[in-house]
Amino acid sequence: MNTKTGLVNYYKTEEGNDYSINSNSIWSLYGDEENRLWIGTYNKGINIIDEKFRKFESFQKIRTADKKLINNDVMGFTEDRQGNIWIATNGGGICRFDPGKRQFNRFVHNNNHPYIVNNDVQDILYDSDDNLWIGTWSGGIDRLNKNGIKIRNYRLINSAGVENNNVFTLYEDSQGNIWAGTAGNGLFLYDRKTDEFYSFICVNNQELISNISYVTALLSDNAHNFWVGTIYGLIVVKKNKNQPVQCYNFLHTNEPSSLSSNVVECLFEDSKGLSLIHI
Q: Is the separation of the CB atoms in 23 and 72 below 8 Å?
């Protein structure tokens, strides 16, 4: 949607049209610094839409080519300071796309080059300190430097002492804090002093974000509220100056003003405020 004109462009797969997206099963979206829209799909690779030049591209895995996309199940994107796009794939590790050279460089887990703990990458984040964070299924979190060289791996042990390393989403908030949402192990916050991730618990209501929470989406809004989407509803974490952190939840009820569903898949903020996407 064009926020200035209000016009909506609709993209879908159209047989025989080389300039349509190649799949309607969309897993991830990302807008880069050049205003290109990157679309990650299930089993069909990447579509790129550049409205400025009315240009459309797509990339898919080619088995015999080293400089092509490594896997067609694309889970997420992030951009570094040089304009390279880093891509998370489910089963193929990560790769870095150089827009100038039009090449993909692969960073995968194998016996010869264990760049990352495993290749089942669910999310990827390039932070303000030039760290590359890799969230994996069953392998926890890897931290790489800006060149893709591994610094260390983090295992996620909750406040009850239970380890579960299924990472679903990563996020850096407006204060530079790194957060990790997990599938069944709650929410984790990175402590730069100890170089570890710790369970985040709401002091005023510990059941809101528990050790079994399935965290699906994270967002820091313009008012510095931190929103946590789960499969059990929506939670807002309020950080008021000189006061303890307070958490409040929003659920689906019979009230017309409540959430339409407790399963929150995506969070984003526009000029009119917070918006949700349910499934």
A: no
Burial (CB count <10 Å: 0-12, 13-18, 19+), residue 198: middle
User: Which of 112, 107, 37 shows the shortest CA–CA distance to 79?
Assistant: 37
Which residues sit opposite 164 in a β-bridge? none
115: left (phi over 0), alpha (psi -120 to 50) or beta: alpha
Dihedral angle at the C-alpha atoms of 83, 78, 35, 106, nearest 10 degrees? 60
DSSP bridge partners of 188: 180, 199
User: What are 92-114's pLDDT values in tens digits?
Assistant: 999 999 988 888 999 999 877 77
Closest CA relative to residue 123, chosen from 212, 217, 35, 37 = 217
Task: For 42-80, write each residue's pLDDT tens digit.
Answer: 998 999 888 765 566 777 765 545 668 889 999 999 999
Number of H helices, E strands in the chain: 0, 22
* Among the listed residues 111, 140, 146, the one whose alpha carbon sits nearest the alpha carbon of residue 127: 146
Q: Spell out a b/e string for 123-152, using b for 16 or more CB atoms within 10 Å of the CB, else e.
A: bbbbbeeebbbbbbbebbbbbbeeebebee
Note whether 169 and 181 are within 8 A (CB).
Answer: yes
Strand residues in 192-232 grouped as ranges (E): 196-199, 215-220, 226-230
Residue 152 CA neighbour count, 13 Å, CB half: 5
Evaluated on CA atoms 119, 125, 131, 135, the torsion sign reads negative
Give the span between the Cα atoms of 69 and 67, in whole angstroms: 7
pTM comes to 0.89
